[in-house]
Amino acid sequence: MNILKALADLVPSIGRSIEKIIPDKDLARKLTHEIQVLVMGIESGLIQAKSAIIIAEAQGASWIQRSWRPITMLTFVLIIANNYIIVPYVVAFAGPDVVPMLDIPPGMWGLLTVGIGGYIGGRAYEKVAKIKAEAKANA
After folding, report:
1. pLDDT by residue (tens digit) across 76-115?
2. Rounded CA gap, 77 and 85, in Å?
3. How many degrees, rounded to 5, is the angle at CA 106 between CA 102 and CA 109?
4. What span, in angstroms and rounded, lies between the C-alpha atoms of 131 and 89?
């Protein structure tokens, strides 16, 4: 995903370079637009692929296949709740060092973002697929 972000960030620079190389401004804008559309298409494909993985996991045959992602997300939520809700209140009423504050690895925030983002992306993909299916049935 970082490669795509870097590519998307390069599009304006590429557009300026195209405008310098190609004297026809309309053609230069058209080429820049086509590059932007290609990058967005790649991003869309990645989002759909990630959503398909999450949907496949949610519809999996085994309990652990269906549940590992929600269990991981709930564990992260509990760690965050411990550090930012439970520990401050316990420290306020019982004093320091009564309840340990858990270390939050830097990668956990990224995993939490991906997990929640993947879930939201999966739900959005399901809804769009349902709307498309209904539109096809009504056409």
Report:
1. 888 889 888 999 999 899 888 788 888 888 888 887 777 7
2. 11
3. 90
4. 46
* DSSP assignment of 26-83: HHHHHHHHHHHHHHHHHHHHHHHHHHHHHHHHHT-SSHHHHHHHHHHHHHHHHHHHII
For residue 33 the two structure tokens come to 């637009």
Separation of alpha carbons 45 and 37, rounded Å: 12
Q: Where are the domains of the chain?
A: 3-59, 63-138
pTM: 0.49
Q: Are 118 and 54 in contact (CB under 8 A)?
A: yes
102 closest CA partner among 84, 114, 118: 84
